[in-house]
Amino acid sequence: MTDQAVVSAEGGGLLAGTSPSGRLLSALILVGSVAFLPALNPLVLGGCGLLLALAWAVSRPDARRFALRLVPALLASAALLFPLALAGQLAQATALFMRSGLAAAILITLTAALSANDLAPALSGLGLPAALSELCASALRQLGLAREEARRVRLARQLRGARGMGLGISVLAALLTRTARRAERVELAMRLSGYDPARRTRDNSALRALDLWLLGPALTAAVLLQWLAGRF
Amino acid sequence: MHLCDGVLSDPALLIGANLIGAATVIGALNSAGTSGRRGVAFSGTLAAFVLVAQAINVPFVPGASAHLIGAGLLALCIGPARAILALFAVLMVQALLLGDGGITVLGINTLNIAVLPVLAVSGLRRLLGDSRRALLVSAFAGTLLGNALGATSLASLLVWSAAAPLELTFGWLLAVQSLAGAVEGVLTALLVSQLWQHTPELFRAPTQRRSLDEQFYQRPPRAGWALVLCVVVGIALLPLSSHTPDALEVVLTRLGPGR
Asked: Which residues does chain A have within 8 Å of residue B258's beta carbon, measured at their own beta carbons?
């Protein structure tokens, strides 16, 4: 099978042979556990740090992309907890911020191994209705189309003597309709060429036996963290 | 307005609110139908634009930034059901690929960012009609109202579950989001005006659009008992959420303020 999706879904190194669904599910288990930690004692923080290090070793994300994703997530948490800090509940705000930051860091690290091509199959493999996973895939596909159309629109404006970035409302409306029409043609061409999203997800996305070596440790780590935090 | 993982800690509240969000997505799925290639392509295009728009955070007031939501444009172009689905897809992509918004609170984010704003715009459109002026008013007022509703819902959850101070949280979130909503409402209205000029068929009523894309609009949603059941369960669970502080908060209280 030479499907591009299969090539991208295989992953490399420690993740070789695992399915996108397995990687996503293990990420969800770990993030869920961290997000529901009842306490943040030093043991738990150490456990989370170790978990993050292991996740980094497995996923090997790009440090710059990791930072580009983590910083906005932390700023968003900080903005939500700002009222708590303003009201003098600094300790609570800090604890919630740390918990939220740890969850975000672990999710971003683990999903670094998930490419845009893997997302729709991974979601389908976990039982999400095909319509929704197809919509995700379509949205990601149209990003590239929109970029190309924006380049064409900008070039056309420059050739006609327009100046500036061309971010006006009329340009945006034209970009939207042109991208949509092109997207419809592309989708029709894909279907006529035999593209079948249902077959693609069936073939590549189902959980495999190899996923157990990800899911097992993930579940164990999740339970251990909760135990360290005093849940049981 | 994206809620992150780990900020809310009350399981009953989280489950209840996420169920309500999930129920709405299921209802929207039933209503929008799963076939129709044109529908998916156009919805995907709009979702891609919304993805880009939501990625641009603009410093708004000291201590906060704001971003466009895009619910108004989606609701007016592709109808409420598909708009909710498209926004749900956007939120999922953001949570999983961009680290923006939590995955354990996806249902809550769907409720605040997709469902409430879309219903506000669609509700106004239903009241005011499909004329150009009515669409522009729906775009502006609906976006503003939708942002305010989403902020109210988020603030309520923060107050209830994270014991955030009532006046400060509501004041802060409502003020910032309403201001952002007003700006977005103006932008949406301008964009709708341009689209109406060039492609007015986008905004035609369902009966008039059948010849263009029969899959786009279905007859009114039937059954939806799963939706009703999920909402009932979700609401039933909400009173079970505890008002007493959880273990984390007890520890923090004992440590004392300001530490």
From this structure: 88, 90-91
Look at B123 and B13; give whichever has higher pLDDT: B123
Q: Which residue is closest to A130 within chain B, CA to CA? A: B34
Digit-coded pLDDT (tens) for B178-190: 888 999 999 999 9
In this prediction, residue B230 carries a pLDDT of: 62
* pLDDT one-digit tens code per residue, A122-159: 888 888 887 888 888 888 888 888 888 888 888 888 88
Task: DSSP for B128-187, please give it.
Answer: H-SSHHHHHHHHHHHHHHHHHHHHHHHHHHHHHHH---HHHHHHHHHHHHHHHHHHHHHH
The band of B172, judged by pLDDT with boundaries at 50, 70 and 90, is confident
Q: Which of A105-114, B15-24, B117-126 has the lowest mean pLDDT?
A: B15-24
Q: What's the whole-number average pLDDT of chain A? A: 82
Are A183 and A140 a contacting pair, CB within 8 Å?
no
Model confidence at A223: pLDDT above 90:
yes
Give the minimum alpha-carbon distance from B64 to chain A in angstroms, rounded to a whole number.
Answer: 6
Closest in B42, B99, B246 to A184, CB measured: B42
Put simply, whether B6 touches A (Cβ < 8 Å) is yes
Q: How far is A159 from chain B (nearest CA, A)?
A: 22
φ and ψ at residue B60, rounded to 5 degrees? -110, -60
35-94 in B: which are within 8 Å (CB) of A?
Answer: 37-38, 40-49, 51-52, 57, 63-65, 85-86, 88-90, 92-93
Half-sphere CA count of A116, side-chain side, radius 13 A:
14
ipTM above 0.85, yes or no: no
Chain A residues whose beta carbon lies within 8 Å of the beta carbon of residue B193: 169
Three-state secondary-structure class, residue B66: strand
Cβ-contact A52, A105 below 8 angstroms:
yes
| CB contacts, 8 Å: A75 with chain B | 65
Tell me the angle at which helices A169-192 and B166-198 cross, rounded to the nearest 10 degrees. 80
Query: What is the spatial distance between Cα A14 and Cα A35, in angstroms, rounded to a whole number?
Result: 26
| Residue A2 confidence (pLDDT) above 50 | no
